[in-house]
Amino acid sequence: MCDDSVVRHAHDEARRLSRRQALRVAAGVATGVSAAAVAGSAVGSPAMGVPAGRVVDLTHVLSPSFPRWPGNAPFASVPTSRVGASNSGYATNWVSFAEHSGTHVDAPAHKIGTGITVDRIDPADLVAPLVVVSIAGRARRDPRTVLTEADLVAFEKRHGRIPRGSLVALHTGWQPRTGGADAAGFSGAAVRMLVAERAVVAIGTDTLSVDIRDATAAHTAILGSGRYAVEALANLTAVPAVGATVVVGAPRFAGGTGGPARVLALG
Predict the structure, then answer these.
(1) Which CATH architecture has domain 104-266?
(2) Model pTM?
């Protein structure tokens, strides 16, 4: 909880920052760059790699009604105090959720016994060029279709080579509400290509899993390489196939295998 003077100071500082400066401060925090240095730098500076422009929230609201992987407990929120109704004068909630709930990160430790935990993901890997590959047309006909190496080759013929260090997100059209746990995903071969030949830092999807039901190849390929995955992304149709930057607000649970994340697309 913050002292009133601290809160007032934070609000005063926020007013001094333009919207674009605030975005760059946020990006600087995510990458470990000094907030003061970021705020003073030029917007859209190539050195920072964060373009100017709009912000698209790729995060679903986490609530008790949000679809979950079979067997996971639902999200729960219980009030523990309310403004004016407690000695503290602050509103607080006690919340409970499975690690892999809502829009969330899978750390290597989720699948790989020796993999790093979510708190050890390199901050530099949480800010990346965003690439969105769609197989929605095919997925409408076959919800268990997978992204293949041929799909990636076709994508690059149209949009150019996938940049090194990207997060490649798969748009299937099967949102968690409708696709459940049995929806389109990545093939293991496609992920191995992205890791070995494009040096991506992560993959993502708009469904509950980067794998189709009963498959593990995509998880094994991305997490086994020390990279991470983001599942249950929202609004992928609101961002371009290439050109945006993604900021993944991964949690820092000690020893965590993942956790809910706020994911933003810039530009």
Answers:
(1) 3-Layer(bba) Sandwich (3.50)
(2) 0.79
Q: So where are the chain's domains? A: 4-50, 104-266
Backbone angles phi, psi at 117, to 5 degrees: -85, 170
Cα–Cα distance measured from residue 255 to residue 145, given in angstroms and rounded to the nearest whole number: 34
- CA–CA distance, 96 with 78 (Å, rounded to integer): 9
Beta pairing partners, 51: none
Tens-digit pLDDT string for the chain (267 aa): 443 333 333 334 433 433 344 344 334 433 333 333 333 333 333 334 444 579 999 999 999 999 988 888 999 999 998 888 656 788 999 999 999 999 999 999 999 999 999 999 999 999 999 999 999 999 999 989 999 999 999 999 999 999 999 999 999 998 775 555 568 999 999 999 999 999 999 999 999 999 998 999 999 999 999 999 999 999 999 999 999 999 999 999 999 999 999 999 998
Q: How far is residue 208's CA from residue 176's CA, in Å, rounded to a whole number?
A: 6
With beta carbons less than 8 A apart as the criterion, state whether 99 and 62 touch.
Answer: no
DSSP 253: -
The residue among 245, 256, 232 whose CA lies nearest residue 172 is 232
In DSSP notation, 125-189 reads: GGEEEEEEEE-HHHHHH-TT-EE-HHHHHHHHHHH-PPPTT-EEEEE-S--HHHHTTSS-EE-HH
- Round to whole Å and give the CA distance between 152 and 140: 19
Hey, is 230 helix, strand or coil? Answer: strand
